[in-house]
Description:
By secondary structure, the chain is mainly alpha-helical. It has two domains: 1-45, Homeodomain-like (Arc Repressor Mutant, subunit A, Orthogonal Bundle); 49-201, Tetracycline Repressor, domain 2. Helices cover 81% and strands 0% of the residues. The chain contains nine helices and no strands. α1 packs across α4. The chain is elongated and about 60 Å long.
Amino acid sequence: MNNSGKEHILEAARRVIARMGVKDASMQAIAEEAGMTKGGLYYHYKGKDYILFELADRFLRETAAPVKRSLFTGEEDREKLLEVLLQGIKKRLNNPEHNLLQFYLTHEAVLGKNEELYELVVNKFRRWIATAENAIDQMYGQPGIEVKRALAASMIAMIDGQAIQLILSEELVDKEDFFACWEAFFRCGLPAMLEYLKEKNK
Length: 202
């Protein structure tokens, strides 16, 4: 499939999801929106979940791209890297439609019987955890702590947890307060935690 054909299907899927919701969006509805047969759609995608995964994965990659560029180029200015990280978190928390899609896919991966989708979702988390680990190294000078991966995974879990709360109700917590907490976490909380863990490992 060429890129224009794929983009056409994904744009059709976005419109269907916006109109019908994630759960009720069907291959038939997406095919009709894209102006193609259901069989033609199945020729390109094995099922609805694979279309949804590509939509979610594209958003996550776009969100992570500035962070990865900063890490790849060896950005040494902590303030610049901090700003990139905070902007990435803001983009994630400011997109409830994507977050709903993301949690639907995670639900399907955990409770469904599609092992291929399960591996796709697990590998996505592996990539995010690795990116968070690299960010810790870049910002705080490779602290060399034994639980760095667990710390990185906890950061991802914090973002997911905040996203869930915002999906349920934006009245639970002001998003700006979440952002303020993240800035304080990177400036004060995380450095103090890393220092404690380094001392503990001695």
